[in-house]
Amino acid sequence: FRSEDLKGKKAIVTAGPTYEAIDPVRFIGNHSSGKMGFAIAEELYLRGADVILITGPTSQQVAYKGIQVKHVVSADEMYDAAVHAFDGAAIAVMSAAVADYKPVQAAVEKIKKKQEAWSIDMVKNKDILLQLGQQKKAGQFLMGFALETHNEKENALAKLKTKNADAIVLNSLNDKDAGFGVDTNTVTIFHQSGNETKVSLKPKKEVASDIVSFIIKHLHV
Ligand code: PMT
């Protein structure tokens, strides 16, 4: 039941949120469920690829034992796993919602409630997509995502360019029944050639199938 479209090709996918520790009890995270990334990993597997799925904390389970799953918690851990796995990959899809910032230092002990107001010093996380874009070699297809609430197209195109991706999948939080948590999605895929592909609202599994078909069509062989 697996096709041979991507036979012998290595594909890596990031999925889910990252958790940035504040102390042993608290973290900074986001609403990503991992559903979109898991669906893409499963679809790549069904098209014959050797898949490594790097996922942040999620309750999702992969449908196929043949998919290699690496569990990570923080953006730093996801960065290390993705940079390592990218070597020799023909396809990389960065669908994780990676925290842009982390607390400068996670407290070793639980932070006690003190004054009325409290602030946390934050530092920027390393950008995984940017790094892979910089180390990308000929023949590697790199797809990023962009989750936007305003100036969606403009922001997606800026990410396509600055991160040296081959394509960017835009998710707008203004679309109903799409994005975080739900089982459906609608996206627009921007390719570096300038073409734009709209995927209408449908189950994430079907959106994943359209995304993987797009990748196969645009793969540099
Ligand atoms: O998990 P679900 O509930 O199914 O929801 C799916 C989704 C909405 C999370 C997914 O479809 C999606 O849009 N993922 C990208 C979310 C995001 O963080 O977008 P961004 O615009 O902040 O990041 C742009 C790109 O850079 C993404 O490919 C992201 O993985 C990558 N990135 C961001 C920060 C960072 N430090 N490293 C990165 O690689």
Automatic annotation (TrEMBL):
The cofactor required is: Mg(2+); FMN
Cofactor binding mode and count: Binds 1 FMN per subunit.
Q: Classify the source by domain of life.
A: Bacteria
| Binding residues for CTP | 100, 110, 145, 159, 163
Report the catalytic activity.
N-[(R)-4-phosphopantothenoyl]-L-cysteine + H(+) = (R)-4'-phosphopantetheine + CO2; (R)-4'-phosphopantothenate + L-cysteine + CTP = N-[(R)-4-phosphopantothenoyl]-L-cysteine + CMP + diphosphate + H(+)
Q: Where is this region: Phosphopantothenate--cysteine ligase?
A: 11-221
Keywords, A to Z, come to: Decarboxylase, Flavoprotein, FMN, Ligase, Lyase, Magnesium, Metal-binding, Multifunctional enzyme
Q: What is its EC number?
A: 4.1.1.36, 6.3.2.5
Which pathway or pathways does this protein act in?
Cofactor biosynthesis; coenzyme A biosynthesis; CoA from (R)-pantothenate: step 3/5; Cofactor biosynthesis; coenzyme A biosynthesis; CoA from (R)-pantothenate: step 2/5
Q: Tell me, which GO biological process terms does this entry list?
A: coenzyme A biosynthetic process; pantothenate catabolic process
Question: What does the entry list under GO cellular component?
Answer: phosphopantothenoylcysteine decarboxylase complex
Q: GO molecular function, one example?
A: metal ion binding
Record-annotated DNA/pantothenate metabolism flavoprotein C-terminal domain positions: 6-217
Q: Which residues form the signal peptide?
A: none
Identify its protein family.
In the C-terminal section; belongs to the PPC synthetase family. In the N-terminal section; belongs to the HFCD (homo-oligomeric flavin containing Cys decarboxylase) superfamily.
Q: What does this protein do?
A: Catalyzes two sequential steps in the biosynthesis of coenzyme A. In the first step cysteine is conjugated to 4'-phosphopantothenate to form 4-phosphopantothenoylcysteine. In the second step the latter compound is decarboxylated to form 4'-phosphopantotheine. Catalyzes two steps in the biosynthesis of coenzyme A. In the first step cysteine is conjugated to 4'-phosphopantothenate to form 4-phosphopantothenoylcysteine, in the latter compound is decarboxylated to form 4'-phosphopantotheine.
Name under which the protein is recorded: Coenzyme A biosynthesis bifunctional protein CoaBC
Residues shown, of full length: 178 to 398 of 398
